[in-house]
Amino acid sequence: MHSNRTKTAPLPRIYLVSSGVESAENGKLLLNQLTRLPRSLSCMVQIREKKLSAKELLTLALKAREIELHENTLLLMNERLDLALAASLDGVHLPENACSVKVLRPLAPKLIYGCSAHSLSAMRIAEEAGADYLLFGPVFDTPSKRVYGAPQGIEKLEAICQATSLPVFALGGITPKNAPLCMAKGAYGIAALSLFQDSFRFADTIEELYFNMNPSCP
Question: What is the pTM of this model?
Answer without folding.
Answer: 0.92
